[in-house]
Amino acid sequence: MGVARRNGRFSPQTVGLVALLFTVAIWAAFALSARALGASTLLPADAALLRFGVPLVVLAPALWRRRRQLVAVRPGTAAKIVCGAGVPFFLAAMYGGSLTSAAFVGSIVPGMVPLFVSALMVAGGKSIPRGTQAAGLALIVAGVAALVWRYTAALDADVLLGAGTLLLASGLWALYTVGLREVDLDPVGSIGLLCLPSFAVIVLLALTGVLPTGLAHAATGDIALFLVVQGLGVGLCAGLLYAFAIRRLGPERSSVVGSLSPVAVVLLAVPLLDESPTLSVLVGVPLITLGVALANRRPRTKVSAHA
Fold first, then answer.
1. pLDDT level of residue 8 (50, 70, 90 thresholds)
2. DSSP class of residue 6?
3. What are the C-alpha distances in Å from 109 to residues 96, 167, 183?
4. Average pLDDT of 153-157?
5. Which of 257, 305, 292 is nearest to 117 (CA)?
6. Statement: the pTM of the whole predicted model exceeds 0.85
7. Residue 252 — left, alpha, or beta (φ > 0 → left; ψ -120 to 50 → alpha)?
8. How many CB atoms lie within 10 A of CB 189?
9. Is the dihedral angle over the CA atoms 84, 86, 91, 96 positive or is it negative?
10. What is the DSSP letter of 245?
11. Residue pair 144/288 in contact by the 8 Å Cβ criterion
């Protein structure tokens, strides 16, 4: 009881856990919306406009106050963030989701991130993961292999293309993760650094006809859904809540709880999208979830010794 409340108030750990659980729910909603986009009246460009435009409108005054910090970010770091979580990532996740299932999006995109981040760290001169972390990465690979095995054996080109595109999206998100470690911005500034150039790019692509848009003729319900899920949820709330949770719980505990995202996606996809989990999903998702939890464990003594 002392952990949950102190002097009649919830402890910082409890508040951080609640924030993280909301973040996991938003991540799950992103995976579900990636799958649902193909059945809606919105086009990918429309969803991207809502995803990157809504946070800019809501945070406009705060971003204006941070304009000098945003301009001061190194171009290389900014490129990692904008490419890693901006238009390339968004289109890859949406296209991959349209060819596969919500379970694939919710498992492959976040699940493979630790593996790609580790590869980027090793390429940058860091040590090769060992022990528990190495075992976690191996479980992630085994889980993804279990997801796609039946489609590989059946040579289902669409699903394999979708899975490959989701792997690309995961690699891009890993690039974004590395970029966030290099940037000296608060969560609001980081959202602005991502959304400002991303919104400009998607507007340019829409105006030139490279990506068609049908926002003016889309159903009101679809616009409202993606505005809430993508714009307010993923674009605004997830970034702020996850940063808040990390400050309260620490990155290790946050990553472990965050690994529940694939499970949440599978459970929600049954009633919301009428998806029935296949045997490959029932085997692959738990392996990925356990792998992410193990891969994100950090030996505190070693980290502090080399800090």
1. low
2. E
3. 10, 6, 23
4. 78
5. 292
6. no
7. alpha
8. 20
9. positive
10. H
11. yes
Query: At 5, which helix (H) or strand (E)?
Result: strand 5-6
| Token duo for residue 26 | 């938003």
236 CB-near residues (< 8 Å, 6+ apart): 54, 55, 58, 59, 191
Q: What angle do CA 106, 171, 154 make, to 5 degrees?
A: 60
Take residue 116 and report the two structure tokens written for it: 């790609």
Assign 116 to helix, strand or coil. Answer: helix
Rounded CA-CA distance 124/126 in Å is 6
150 vs 159: CA distance, rounded Å: 10
Q: Which residue is listed with tokens 């505005």?
A: 227
DSSP 9-37: EE-HHHHHHHHHHHHHHHHHHHHHHHHHG
2 pLDDT more than 90 = no
The Cα–Cα gap between 276 and 77 comes to: 41
- Give, to the nearest 10 degrees, the angle between helix 131-153 and helix 157-182: 150
Q: 264 and 24 in contact (C-beta within 8 Å)?
A: yes
Look up residue 134 and give its two tokens: 């190495």
3-state secondary structure of 96: helix
* Residue 111: partners with Cβ closer than 8 Å, 6 or more residues away: 140, 143, 144, 170, 262, 288, 289, 291, 292
Instruction: State both tokens at 97.
Output: 């989701």
